[in-house]
Amino acid sequence: MTQIQVVGRHSIDAPVLRYDPTRDELAAHLEGQPRYRLDQIWEGLYKQGSDLEDISNLPKSLRQTLSEALPPALTPEAESVSRDGQTVKWLWKLHDGHMIETVLMHYRERTTVCVSTQAGCAMACGFCATGQSGFDRQLSVGEIVEQVIRARATSAPRRVSNVVFMGMGEPFANYDRTWAALQRLHDDMGISARHLTVSTVGVIPGIDRMAKEDLPVNLAVSLHAANDTLRDQLVPINKRYPIEQLVSACARYLAAKNRRLSFEWALIDGVNDSPDDARELAAICHRLRAHVNLIPLNPTPGYPTRGTPGEGVEQFREELEQQGVNATVRRNRGTEIDAACGQLRASRQVIDNPKRR
Ligand code: SAH
């Protein structure tokens, strides 16, 4: 087989990984094969899983050639499972040694995979473990997609219903590959647009681009502060894309897609958890009919402030409710397995749990 050319790689000298090629790119390199082979391979990759050896209707020699031409992107470096078995987190090593994380979360009514879009992140939010360690590189389409494929294999028999782009990195700083990955999840893995969510730190050009795409995916914005003075400190990119402009971009997205918008708000003790903060946030939510996801800050090595304690979280939620804003308190899933926010990579610790589902 000739060398496969694909556009979704992270750089031109990077290897072509198993989930990098589009269907057409793969087809171009199956010349001499009967046409139905492409369907078999594509079906095998996206409906069955990452293991080409398991595509039993392919001739053995082709399985082997493909396996070698298209190596998997992710090598497990650590896998940890929460005590209740409902959260699984992976630390993957990439072909060049960089590390990324993926989380699988089972809820009563859904199963969600949280994927990374970059190795590291350049947005430099001080409270975020990934932001503290800086940017390594973009992920390729295949490196993003394979995270979902691998998580799905572990999730069975429970079906992966939702994917959130809330792992490491800023999706809109890697827009093309992120969007190509979203299309792949939708078109080839069969995950509906309303179960796909992209979370951004507030990169306005990305929001506007996504408003023009055909798939109406959900938009989440990491707000954390509702005035520029505080947000400039917590989320440095706010100096470039201040709140008023960000809110306008959100309004444009809402107008274009009519999907519920959500704001993420990491509650930081004594920093952004006062009744005034709640009222300021509520005013923004009213304009956009937005929902709020509250999560008490996970402590990270580089940021000494703690998360708002339980009572304060409840008070903040009640204040929002009184203002007529819906808010959900997110449990800190898998804190004990460092499953929160870039912390597995930071600690590189594995908890070996024999009760794996
Ligand atoms: N760059 C994107 C997506 C990755 S971060 C974004 O900013 O939205 C996913 C969410 O986790 C963001 O809301 C981020 O602000 C939040 N987060 C990061 N570090 C955190 C921490 N230590 N505790 C709680 N939430 C955190």
CATH superfamily of the largest domain: Aldolase class I
Q: Whole-Å distance between the termini?
A: 39 Å
Rg from alpha-carbon coordinates: 21 Å
H and E string: HHHEEEEEHEHEHEHEHHEHEHEH
CATH topology of the largest domain: TIM Barrel
Under the CATH scheme, the architecture of the largest domain is Alpha-Beta Barrel
Q: How would you write the strand order of the largest sheet? A: 1-2-3-4-7-8-9-10-11-12
Sum up the overall morphology in one term.
elongated
The kinds of small molecule bound in this structure are: S-adenosyl-L-homocysteine
What can you see in these coordinates?
- The chain is of the alpha/beta class and 357 residues long.
- It is 34% helix and 17% strand.
- The chain folds into two domains: 23-69, no CATH class; 75-356, Aldolase class I (TIM Barrel, Alpha-Beta Barrel), CATH 3.20.20.
- It is built from twelve helices and twelve strands.
- The strands form two sheets. It has a ten-stranded mixed β-sheet, covered by helices on one side. The protein has a two-stranded antiparallel sheet with strand order 5-6.
- Helix 5 runs parallel beside helix 6 (175-187), helix 7 (204-211) runs parallel beside helix 9 and helix 10 (275-288) crosses helix 11.
- The longest helix has 15 residues, at 141-155.
- It is elongated.
- Residues 123, 125, 127-128, 166, 170, 199-201, 222, 264, 266, 295, 297-298, 300, 341 line the site of S-adenosyl-L-homocysteine.
